[in-house]
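Action item from last week, closing it out:
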Amino acid sequence: MDQPAVGPTSSNPDATKRLGWPRTLRARLALSHALVLLLALVLALILSGAVLVREGRRAQVEQMEGLAVPLMVEVAVLGHHPRLAPGIRDRIGAELLGRQAAELGVRLLLLDGDGQVLVDTAPGDELLAIGRRLDGYASTIARLEAAAVEGRTIAREVVPPGRDDADPFPGQQVVLAADPLPAPTVLAVVAPSERPGVIGRLAFGFGLILVASLGLA
């Protein structure tokens, strides 16, 4: 009696192809190598990017601190000039700070000892009203003025970027400088936190390394 036909017991030979997984050992090793290398490159990119951002911001703050001293000297000399009437002196000071802010690419503010805005070089809607008091900076200004008087020199302090809506400079780098002369004046140097544009170049370089490694695999 004829036996019924028995179908094939082996798996479909095309199943591996449909899954897209390499069939040879060499190809599988190459793919595993590529995946490990890709993960390593992604991790290196993340770590390198974090270091570059941190170093870029540190360099920016150092540059702002360097600018604050000569600018504060100019403000102090002009502010205590005996031959200039107060109104003319204030107008010249505001114009001078405006030109320097434009050339340096920063925002400059002049504050009195109570933290009230005397001059603001910001354009448009960012401009703070003259006479507005920056209460969040009052304690920092008082501490800075005391240090300037005690040391008889220009004192500087970096203010951490604010994160709340009450801060007039949210997410920006701020450096304050104060002179030791009577009728204390405080200069604020403000600039957006820099984000280095080298992350894209790093990704491109790591991509080339990945392609070269795959070619050698």
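Closing note: The beta strands are 107-112, 117-120, 155-159, 172-178, 185-192.
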